Amino acid sequence: MDSPRTKKIVMLHGMNxxxxxxxxxxxxxxIQNKFDYIIWQSLRDSPxxxxxxxxxIQFISNQNSTLETSENSHLLENLRKHRCLIILDDIQTIFSxxxxxSHYSPEHKNYSQFFQLIAQLSHxxxxxxxxxxxxxxxxxxxxxxxxxxxxxxxxxxxxxxxLKDQDxxxxxxxxxxxxxxxxxxxxxxIIATTINDLFSGNIxxxxxxxxxxxxxxxxxxxxxxxxxxxxxEKQVISHLATTTEPVTISTLLNNLQIPASDLLNIIKxxxxxxxxxxxxxxxxxxxxxxxxxxVRS
Length: 297
Prior knowledge:
By secondary structure, the protein is α/β, with parallel strands linked by helices. It has 14 helices and 7 strands. It folds into 3 domains: about 5-150, P-loop containing nucleotide triphosphate hydrolases (Rossmann fold, 3-Layer(aba) Sandwich); about 155-215, no CATH class; about 220-295, Orthogonal Bundle (Arc Repressor Mutant, subunit A), CATH 1.10.10.10.
């Protein structure tokens, strides 16, 4: 991953629990001496842009006076004067629920212009954005000062370490466990706790009873993400949950009463949410999500 020192915007995006915040904290630890200021702001409560700008300006300039210039120009002045690393976490909260991915809610549309200014204008700082959904501005931008990193599951070594740290018995079933939970560290830690509580760390015993077990805590994490989908996204993802093999866009068109242009936008939206996988020119749902829909049906 490129250092934020060489980029104006770096985005970490991926599913709930995939390790975005953990990676960001590790990154900050490695590069903290390269910046004058490091400022972490959570958008969990969907603050207006002006609130975030004011906090950043007051922190960097150490002043509480009323600003005479616009927040954007004043903040950019500080970003030119100082090397700042600004971390904005939980960006997805400023997007509208029930719309396609990364669609700003009406009161947060000015964030789009703000991100574009950070990317385009001259300064020596970086904005690290953490979100479950990839920004549309980043999806379409060819600006070399922007870097996007899609976090997927951990590699085999890292996932095996999680299971060992949880004192699970590593047997012939551990790879199935990792594959089903897609190397998601949060999901793996949750299911490892269940295996310890019920089967004294024996993975094979879980698979004897329910090889596709979904812990209530995992269901809740999935619900949080899926509840934000638009109705047309729910229609597509519900259909994908019933397929046994990856399907093409033409197959989806034949099975769903959705215009082609709309379906393409829906597929792109589900990709920005990290809810579907592309295998060559075919699309499929994550195994955990298929099981989630099967349990609900």
